[in-house]
Amino acid sequence: MMTLPDDYTLEEKEELNRQFENLLQCWKSRKNDQDVEKVTEAYLLAANAHKDARRRSGEPYMYHPLAVATIIAGEMGMGRTSIICGLLHDVVEDTDYTVEDMRERFGDKVAEIVDGVTKLTKEDFHEQARSLQAETFRKVIMSMSYDIRVILVKLADRTHNMRTLDAMPHHKQLKIASETAQIYAPLAYRLGLYKIKLELDDLCLKYINPQAYESVERQLAEVREKVKWVFKLTRQ
What we know:
Number of strands: 0
Radius of gyration: 20 Å
Number of helices: 13
Mean pLDDT: 88
Structural class: mainly alpha
Oligomer: single chain
Helix content: over 70%
Shape: globular
Low-confidence stretches: none
Order of helices and strands: HHHHHHHHHHHHH
């Protein structure tokens, strides 16, 4: 089996393995030793495939697929196939690996989902959703030829990108936040991912209207302090 390449520093290898262990701990759905073995294989393949890539923050790019897979496992409650696809979702698009490589190593379903994520570009998705009314949005998405797990991986990908949007230039922040508010947050709601939907709404407001976001944060902080104060009084 592959190991982590020496392109990563010792500290980065330790952090990668820490994040992978966290992924395994977040994975609460039913699994056996073979499931863990295949997820580990996907992790090491992705880490080798992305070994030369860095995020805008300077961190290894591999932190992103690990975070996406952790969202899929821990916050969406998905299983082996979806977790593997989260780890591999950018491999075909950004490296020399092909869909057929994915098929040979992980089977038809993983290959189909990774291929679907690769093809579901932001531009195509944006054009599809731009003219849709909220009431018909879910029906159109559900009728797409993609496995629904393609959409879930895209949502997990967007969620992590929103969580790390600080590293992007301001004009990119506005574009990504606006697209998220128009497409991904409503989609999360339609799929019943209410916690993710609320988080995306908050993050969109942070970048689209930072003054309103800060005002809401201050009000919430005041409410939390009042609740703590009242709770303290009732305990006396």
